Amino acid sequence: MTLATDKRQIARAASIVMVAFALSRVLGLVRQMVIAGQFGTGVEMDAYQAAFRLPDLLFQLMAGGALGSAFIPTFTGYLTRGDRAGAWRLVSAIINLVLVILTLTAVVGALVAPWLVDWIIAPGFDAPTAALTVRLMRVMLISSVIFGVSGVLMGALNAHQHFLLPAVAPMLYNLSIIGGTLFLAPSMGVMGLAVGVVVGSALHLLVQVPGLIHFDVRYAPVLTVQDPGVREVARLMGPRVLGLAVVQLNFLVNTNLASRLGEGAVSAINFAWLLMLLPQGVFAQAVATAAFPTFAEQVARGERAAMRSALAATLRAIFALSLPAAVGLAVLRGPLIAMLFERGAFGETATDLVAWALLFYALGLVAHAGLEIVARAFYALHDTKTPLLVGGGAMLLNVGLSLALPPLFESLGWLPLGGLALANSLATTLELLGLLWIIRGRLQGLEGQRSRLTILRSTAAAALMGLALVALLWALPEANPLLLGPAGIALGATVYAGAAWALGVEEVRAIAAGVARRLHG
Description:
85% of the residues lie in helices and 0% in strands. By secondary structure, it is mostly helical. The chain has a domain at 60-260. The longest helix is centred in the middle third of the chain and has 38 residues, at 304-341. 56% of the residues are buried.
């Protein structure tokens, strides 16, 4: 397979996944809008967000990252060698191990939930809020077991270059939570959200079954840690588990500290974080999901030069897409939040809280997007230790900054929760720079000249876009957010696309050419 073929394969897969991820993120946004209207940033929402920390940790380890990053390269190796029987035996063994491990973990987590909430997750909660958090956590832990199996199946389908059904799965998950909010929450309160999470995890799993049937899956009731493939997955997964645990520890620190900042702080931080993840999910996660199997194939074929070129091209595209999104979120944060959430229980005070946190989270959007790509390049190289070590350093920095910045913000008369968001952005940016420096040495460069040109030209185009948006807000200070938000998005996209085209940002030109081909094709 040629380098050009590899790049086209990534582009085709990314286009499919990006559309699906965009739809999923839109549904995720609708989910947050429905939840915000029902619960605002009150104590029930604080309890729900805090209760989600442990189930989300287990989700990220299994369905969201660690397992897939270790499983896909190993599984791809079997497929590359033509050993399909061994490949499906590996799938069976991993599924069975995951079921056993996660079931035990969920049971233990349910038993120690009161201690976790009181001492680690949300020590600032009062007794009734803490008790509600425990109940919600125990229900949502069921979803962790289901997501574990779903994560393995998702990896198997991605390794076959099948991305559609795994990308559709989060849509059904979001729809289930929306249903729980609309139809269960009026009678069950915030517990309706927890039920929606569990049902959504089951749908996340079931939607992938037709794809497995298509690829003639063969399940075997095997439970072993002696299989060479299982041992390789475990070897690769160990550091990745620790790495994601580091990331989740940052979330725990934020939740812990935010729980001490008064009612609504935990919810505001979470709403801002999810808004920042909206473009990151559409662009970075979609492209990274599509690129990872190709990176793994290139490594399995010993084609380091091809991987270097594909990685550099992918990073340039991600930078050209995520930078304007970061500028847009930072400048338009107030109108966007008011447009999306300000209704029902979500008032102007909640908008101000979320907007303040989003300003500082937006500063780290480019770094978060780049990490999605660079980390998978390391995993494709069967190196999960380097991201762990660099991420561990970033975690320590994040914790230190999370302790130092909120008091500094408060002394300046600023809302302290902004310090928590800024700490995350600074640490993530340094983490990305460190990993880029290391992998650049491993691959003997990352097409530095082309990459520098893309960065400079994209930055100039984004700066022009930012000035246009500031002028819009200055000219229309009293405009209805329902009009100002869409107008700002349209203006920003138009100015950035035009400026990037004029400045010669080749990635933007390539995207425009691809859209034109589809429209005329």
